[in-house]
Amino acid sequence: MKICYIYRSKNISFSIERVFAQIRKYTSPSIEQSELYCPRNNAQSPITYIKNMWATLGTKANIYHITGAVHYMALFYPRKRTLITVHDLTHITGVKGIKGFFLKTIFATLPFNWVKHIVAISECSKNEIVEKIGISPNKIDVIYDPAPDDFPYKAKEINLDKPRILCFSHLINKNLTRHIKALEGINCHLRILGRIPEQDKNLLEALNIEYSNAFDISSEQIKKEYEDCDILLFASTSEGFGVPILEAQLTGRPVITSNIAPLTEVSGEDSAINVDPFDVESIRTGIKKLISEKDLAETLIQKGLKNVERFSPANIAKQYENVYNKMLKKH
């Protein structure tokens, strides 16, 4: 069996590439692998589609796997032997007007109806595909993204008297403003990764919250940030998946996250404290609960380590292999 993995253009981002680098690393050696990176990424230019289509000529495989983002590439491959992995539809369904109609048609409606097999990275993503694009749930398998295999467990005595709380700020959905408000009067050090908007800097000063900030940091430094923290505060208002939950749990840190999908899928039933990301008081209650109940942090750490086993790269790779085999049998 030969699988050709189709990626968006190089140097656009690395999240999808990191996910599939791990999956491919743990895929059976009996499966031959190749890859194709799209030459162009400008969705508004017709030249992009022509050049990307031209790049497909000469690619030969049993299965063509669109790894994400460039869903329309499926239209250039055999429908029964092409698989699309859908990470989320935010960049498609969040745009209005003629441009929104075009993006939805090219990136979702046409390719999703063309192929016989789709993988969604969560039940939340699957439901979105069914409800917003009208695709039958029977053609969609759910396979989670893998937990990173390079985040080692680091034992640490969790400081609940003055915890170092890690959070993110590079996108509005990371919910930094509500996180800051929820920490008013709580003795802590807030460690923020990502550039801080000016209004949030002003809020931090006004509420007298001790904080520090870093951005544009390396992968190794990100690991160190998890090791140094006592708590991950990740009550996002929306996520395509939620890998930071797994990164923190792999490291051995308790997690506070949102009570909305897909974050509840990733955190499992009881391996994290789930709060309402739109309610400052709910976030605040979750933080105070964790720092006031002596044994809760250790309980969450142990449950977190158990939770991440579901997302091992070897397990995820095996699930994809099962889909490949199913596709070839039907073909």
Q: Would you kindly provide a written description of the structure presented here, covering whatever features stand out?
A:
- With about 325 residues, the protein is α/β, with parallel strands linked by helices.
- The mean pLDDT is about 95.
- Helices cover about 40% and strands about 15% of the residues.
- It has helices at about 15-25, 45-55, 90-95, 95-115, 125-135, 175-180, 200-205, 220-230, 245-250, 265, 280-290, 295-305, 315-330, and strands at about 1-5, 30-35, 65, 80-85, 115-120, 140, 165-170, 190-195, 210-215, 230-235, 255-260, 275.
- Helix 1 crosses helix 13 and helix 9 crosses helix 12.
- It is globular.
- The strands form 2 sheets. It has a 6-stranded parallel β-sheet with strand order 2-1-3-4-5-6.
Q: Briefly note the structural class of the backbone.
A: alpha/beta
Q: What's the number of helices?
A: 13
Quaternary organization: single chain
How many runs of DSSP E, i.e. beta strands?
A: 12
Give the radius of gyration: 21 Å
Helix content: 40-55%
Order of helices and strands: EHEHEEHHEHEEHEHEHEHEHEHHH
Uncertain segments are: none
| C-alpha end-to-end distance | 13 Å
Beta fraction:
15-25%
Largest sheet: 6 strands, parallel
Provide the spatial order of strands within the biggest beta sheet. Answer: 2-1-3-4-5-6
Mean residue pLDDT? 93
Describe the global form. globular
